[in-house]
Write a structure and sequence with these properties.
- The protein is of the alpha/beta class.
- The chain has one domain: Thiamin diphosphate (ThDP)-binding fold, Pyr/PP domains (Rossmann fold, 3-Layer(aba) Sandwich), CATH 3.40.50.
- Helices cover about 35% and strands about 15% of the residues.
- The chain has an eight-stranded mixed β-sheet, with helices on both faces.
- Strand 1, helix 2 and strand 2 form a beta-alpha-beta unit.
- It is globular and about 50 Å long.
- It binds thiamine diphosphate (TPP), iron/sulfur cluster (SF4) and magnesium ion.
- The site of thiamine diphosphate (TPP) has 20 residues, from helix 4.
């Protein structure tokens, strides 16, 4: 068995308690396992955007590309097209990819290109100190909306369904084993995959209590069933006060290409 050490010398500057640690530790464990199972470490490339999430590229000792805000997806696509044998994983923010880079995300999903996108969805612009994003709830009070937003949030997973993404899942930055399981399944999927992680920003939008009361893991769910997946994705639309399902909502079966 190889001795895989994916740590780097970079000093970690995330706030103590930030949900990004769970994403880092989970993906580090999953990549370590994949390398032990035979995936050459040099075939892994990670891409990040601009934001707190993006620092993950500094903390993982694999090939990496720090891209521009909103441009994680096209950089991932270009790397994959240039060298199809690479395992390409993009780490993006909610501001990053559900805002400025949204059209890239939809078309990558539609294209079905074999890249894996992980969204650090803290529902706030963390790095720029607390402005609202497309997934901030109605009434969110932040630096740019002191009186509260007047807009309803989008449900990005519903958009991904409409965009024909082949693999759609939601994780939460509390509970590493579950996150690892989802990441592993996403990386094993051939084609486009999106994992939206409810990543708590303890400094600008601390949602631990809110999520802890509402999240549950999907059981008896058939991810091959488009209608069932859509129903589960609509259960919580990033604003209403309901339970929040976690897990793999949709996984395209070879037979449901037309779904
Ligand atoms: C093209 C471009 N637009 C805007 C910015 C300013 N900017 C940097 S980070 C950021 C927001 C980051 O929010 P998010 O993507 O949610 O990441 P987080 O910090 O929450 O992880 C913005 C607007 C930029 N650097 N480049
Ligand atoms: S500002 Fe928020 S997202 Fe950024 S490191 Fe701190 S807790 Fe994490
Ligand atoms: Mg964010």
């Amino acid at each position: 068995m190889k001795n895989v050490n994916l740590a780097t010398y970079a000093k970690n500057t995330w706030c103590p308690g930030c949900g990004n640690f769970a994403i880092l530790n989970s993906i580090k464990a999953v990549l370590g396992e994949l390398i032990e199972e035979g995936l050459p470490a040099e075939n892994i490339v990670i891409v990040s955007g601009i934001g707190c999430h993006a620092k993950i590229a500094d903390y993982l000792n694999v090939n990496s590309f720090y891209s521009l805000h909103g441009r994680v997806v096209p950089v991932c696509e270009a790397i994959k097209i240039a060298n199809p044998k690479l395992k390409v994983i993009g780490f993006a923010g909610d501001g990053d990819t559900y805002g400025e880079g949204l059209e890239h995300l939809i078309f990558a999903a539609k294209r079905g290109i074999d890249i894996n996108i992980i969204i650090h969805n803290n529902r706030v612009y963390g790095l720029t100190t607390g402005q609202y994003t497309p997934t901030s709830p109605l009434g969110f009070k932040g630096r740019s909306t002191p009186a509260g937003t007047k807009e309803l949030p989008i449900n990005p997973l519903e958009l991904m369904m409409a965009g024909k993404a082949g693999f759609i899942a939601r994780g939460y930055s509390h509970g590493i084993e579950f996150l690892k399981k989802i990441f592993k399944e996403a990386l094993a999927h051939e084609g486009f995959s999106l994992v939206d992680v409810l990543q708590v920003c303890v400094t600008f939008f601390n949602m631990y209590d809110y999520y802890n009361k509402r999240v549950y893991e999907l059981k008896d769910h058939d991810p091959g069933d488009y209608k069932q997946a859509m129903e589960k994705i609509r259960e919580w639309d990033y604003n209403i006060d309901s339970k929040i399902p976690l897990g793999v909502f949709y996984k395209k079966r070879p037979s449901n290409d037309k779904a």
